[in-house]
Every structure is written in C-alpha cells, then in structure tokens.
Design a protein that fits this description.
The protein has 7 helices and 8 strands. It is an alpha+beta fold. It is elongated. The protein starts with a strand and ends with a helix.
C-alpha cells in the first residue's frame, strides 16, 4: 500500500548501492524487520548526514515501496551511541547484538520486547564499552534474553525430555534444554555454574549480569546456539569468536 509511515528503528547493517545510495537493514519498534534505501546518502552534502549508519537509533519517515525496500524520506537521531563507537570492544558487542537480531528475527511482525532489549543493550555498552556488558558474558546474556523474546528460551527448570529435576548435568540442543543422565544421548556436559548463570541471567536485568568463568560462559553460549540451531533453524557465530574478532 503506497504512502508514508513513521517508525523508530535501529540500523542493523548497511550496504553500499549504486554511486551514492545505501541499503539499510532495520529493526523497528512497530514493524519488525524492514529494508530501506537511502538515496544520495553517500554524497558529501547529504541531508541525512552520518546518521544512517549501523547501531544508530532513529526516528524515521519511510515511503512504502512496491517491493521489499522502502525509501527513507526523513531521519532524526534518537541515540547515536557515540561512546560505543569509540571502542573496538563496544563495536564488536554492538555488531554481535545487531547480527543476532538480523539472523533470528527476519519477519515484519513487531516484537517490542526484542526491540527494547536491543536498545537497552546498546545503551549499556555505550555507558561502559570497556566493561563486562561488552564482553563475552554480556554478549551471551543478550543472546539468552533475545532467545526468550523470540520464543526459543531453553528449558532450565527440569529435564527437557522427561521432566526430572535432579542431576541436570548435560544440555541437548535437540531437546531444547538441560537433560538428566537417563536422557543425555546426543548432549554435551553442562556444569552447574553454567546452569546457574543462565537461570540468574534470565531473571535479572542485563545490567546485573552475574559473574562467571570463561569455561562456563562458553557452555552457556553453546547451549543457546544449539537451541536456536535446532528449533529456530538459525546458526549464530560462536560468541567467543565474535568477542575476539
């Protein structure tokens, strides 16, 4: 349907197009994933300035296109997260979060919890780009909460196959959660520390992400990744690889 509409969105990724244009991958508060083209944005005197870049949170006016791409007609900065951009660690963390959204939430349905989660994470990284929220544990916490917002949170309260509540020492991505010794076929060892971290992280604000050893946070990251791979059919890069990039 032709016409214009307004939305707030975060720029997830950009692609150069033709001599002066740019394609934008957006995640919006009201419309979920959107694609848009910003015409002339790469010209020196573009009216958009430098705000149509990854990680910017924008108030946009878009003209509806006939295909998948809308046209940006106006853009105002809600938050540019300037401190985040001055840190390689902050940029890596923001890139991982936006990349996770890009892969996991590809529909046009609004998911306001996911949008709010992304904005909150970017704000926390911007507050302290050198802090733990921008490190491996913070990135895994974001992925865990994103899985919850997308409807793919792993089962942590009991064996995901039989429901047993004791001796939950392994994790099965195929089963979607922790498993007991009886049901641990095709699982991997899962420590009590990793289990406790995931339970605590799900129930706490992101700013209060619990401390955890590197080995345990890698287990948690693997658990989230295998759950999403089996049940959302989405493969995310290992968080430790993103953190070290």
């Amino acid at each position: 349907m032709a016409g214009t509409f307004k939305t707030e969105a975060v720029v997830l990724r950009t692609i150069r197009y033709s001599e002066a244009d740019r394609i934008l991958h957006l995640y919006s508060r009201e419309h979920g994933r959107l694609g848009a083209i910003a015409k002339g944005v790469r010209k020196p005197k573009s009216r958009f300035g430098g705000r149509l870049e990854p990680f910017f949170r924008l108030a946009l006016v878009l003209h509806r296109g006939r295909g998948d791409l809308h046209t940006v007609t106006a853009a105002e900065t809600v938050d540019g997260y300037a401190d985040l951009r001055s840190s390689a660690r902050g940029i890596r963390a923001a890139g991982d979060a936006c990349g996770s959204i890009l892969r996991l939430l590809d529909g046009s349905e609004a998911n306001q919890p996911a949008y709010n989660l992304l904005c909150r994470y970017l704000a926390l990284v911007d507050e302290d780009p050198a802090g733990p929220i921008a490190g491996l544990a913070g990135m895994v916490t974001f992925r865990l909460k994103l899985a919850l917002a997308a409807g793919f949170a792993p089962e942590l309260s009991g064996c995901s196959r039989c429901g047993a509540s004791d001796h939950l020492t392994a994790f099965s991505g195929a089963a979607g959660g922790v498993v007991c010794p009886t049901c641990e076929a095709n699982s991997f060892p899962f420590s009590g520390e990793a289990h406790e971290f995931m339970v605590t992280a799900l129930g706490s604000p992101m700013s209060e992400s619990p401390e955890i050893s590197t080995a345990a946070v890698r287990m948690a990251g693997r658990a989230i990744g295998e759950t999403l791979e089996h049940h959302a059919h989405v493969r995310l890069p290992r968080p430790e690889e993103a953190a070290a990039a």
